Each structure stands twice: as C-alpha cells, then as structure tokens.
Amino acid sequence: RRERQRFVDKNGRCNVQHGNLGGESSRYLSDFFTTLVDLKWRWNLLIFLLTYTVAWLVMASMWWGIAYLRGDLHEVRDDTYDPCVANVYNFPSAFLFFIETEATIGYGHRYITERCPEGIVLFLFQSLLGSIVDAFLIGCMFIKMSQPKKRAETLMFSHAAVISQRDGTLCLMFRVGNLRNSHMVSAQIRCKLIKSRQTPEGEFLPLDQCELDVGFGTGADQLFLVSPLTICHEINSKSPFFCLSQRSLRSEQFEIVVILEGIVETTVLWGHRFLPVMSLEDGFFRVDYSQFHATFEVPTPPYSVKE
C-alpha cells in the first residue's frame, strides 16, 4: 500500500499546523488558562514548578528586604530588641519563614511581632497571592487530568470499513466497540467524508467536508454502546458514494472520519462483511474481541448504486 498524507491520523490527531498568525497570536494570551490547559504535560509541569519557585523566591526576598531595611540583620540580638520577624538573620532564614507561613507549618521558632505593620501587610498580601496561585495552577492541573482524551484509548474502531448489501441496499459499514464496563449510554456518532472537489464555477475546495448519514433521521446515530455495534451508511441518491463502484474505489482519494469521543480514519473493503463477535453462553452474552476487525467476502455487485 502506498503511503499518503492523512488529514486525520488513526489516533485522532489532526495534521494541521497554524502558521503566520501575526498579531493574532496574542489571542492565546487573552485566554491564558485554556492555553495552559492545552499545553503538553511537560510544559505544564515546567510552568508549575517555575511559577512556585519564582513566587517563593520573590516573597522570601521581600521578607528579607523588610528585615534588611529595618536593620534586623545587623542589630545585636538581646532580650530588649524587638525585630519585625523573630529569628530571621539572613536570606535562608527569611525563606524558611516564608515556607512555614505559606504551608501553615508553624514550627514556632520564627514569627511576626506586633510592632511590624509592614510585615503584617506583607503577610496579608502573601496569603492572597498564595490563594490565587494555588487556585489557578491546581485548577489547571485538575482540569487537565480530568480531560477525557485517554477515554478514547478504550474505544475500538474497526481497521476497515466494508461495503456490501443490507436489506437489499448497498451500504458502507464499520464497527465500533467499548472495552470498558462503564457503558456509554446516549453516545452519538457522526461521520465526515473529507475529499477535495471542484465546484461547477471552477473553484477548487481542498479537504471539503461532507456529512455521511448514519441514521440521523431515524435516531440510529444515538448509540447504546454496551456491545460492539456495526454502523451503517445507506448508499442512495443523496449519498456522496452514489457513483462509487468497486473499480473507482481503487483510484478515489478520500478520508472517512468517525467522531465518537475521538476521531479515527478508516479504510474501505468492497464486498466484505464483519464476522459475528457475540455468542450466547451459560446465561450471558460473550463478546469475542479477537474477531473484532475480521471480515469475510460476500457476493456484492461491483457497480455503483447509480449504475
């Protein structure tokens, strides 16, 4: 089989890159939270670590700065001296005080005295800033971990689509299954045909998208996906495959994208049908996933529906 450039890979990733955005790239910063969620995990973790590290160092420097400006770092410590923060002698001790305050550890060795109004104001600012940073970053990580992208790993699509007759009508069919015991009730499936075409006016439309009817009018697109289902697209006069025959299929260039909690491109086999995967055993129905992708040839006219 000769390789060709896909618009959508088998794993659902779209091969589209945005370039020459110019001033439009600032739109990503206007919705920075969504941009952060959409980043890859390695960048999220890097931003997470850098944000906390920088915030800790800045706040520790501010506590050290207060002690330095008040002369607490140079004064002789005795029972009569009342510093802004007790037992802060240098930057490491100021950093430890900040960590103890931020994490509410409270060892009791370092504390703010009542004669330091600037320390009290900085403590309030630190509490507000820490709450905002925690809410932003932890919320971002939670949303990213709860995204359903990995759910698609347990959704199976047949490697190939088949074309054969069903109820006297030529149909394009493919199979979809759910590996998890958690049922996908009210799941909806859609199909898109992606194919370049030229309009009667001479306009060329690259990667034009056309909807494939898989039961929208009858409700068959609403799936009760507790066992593998065969999705059927009836090839009639309204179908984009109305003129497709077995001979023309070999030279056609198109992609079929199936949308069900994920996107997968399929290939097409003319004159094939899926092997059964369900059997009745002792009080239950057994699904044999070893035959999930298996097909077999059936007598099917090699002509298009139009022919």
From TrEMBL:
Domain Inward rectifier potassium channel C-terminal, first and last residues per copy: 155-306
GO cellular component: monoatomic ion channel complex; plasma membrane
Listed InterPro entries: Ig_E-set (IPR014756), IRK_C (IPR041647), K_chnl_inward-rec_Kir (IPR016449), K_chnl_inward-rec_Kir3.1 (IPR003274), K_chnl_inward-rec_Kir_cyto (IPR013518), Kir_TM (IPR040445)
Catalytic activity: K(+)(in) = K(+)(out)
Gene3D superfamilies: 1.10.287.70, G protein-activated inward rectifier potassium channel 1
Sites annotated Role in the control of polyamine-mediated channel gating and in the blocking by intracellular magnesium: D134
Location of the protein in the cell: Membrane
One MF annotation (Gene Ontology) recorded for this entry: G-protein activated inward rectifier potassium channel activity
Signal peptide range in chain numbering: none
Potassium channel inwardly rectifying transmembrane domain span: 8-148
GO biological processes: potassium ion import across plasma membrane; regulation of monoatomic ion transmembrane transport
Membrane topology, record value: Multi-pass membrane protein
Membrane spanning stretches: 45-66, 120-143
SUPFAM superfamilies: E set domains, Voltage-gated potassium channels
UniProtKB keywords: Ion channel, Ion transport, Membrane, Potassium, Potassium transport, Transmembrane, Transmembrane helix, Transport, Voltage-gated channel
Membership in a protein family: Belongs to the inward rectifier-type potassium channel (TC 1.A.2.1) family. KCNJ3 subfamily.
Protein name: G protein-activated inward rectifier potassium channel 1
Organism per entry: Nyctiprogne leucopyga
Lineage, opening ranks: Eukaryota, Metazoa, Chordata, Craniata, Vertebrata
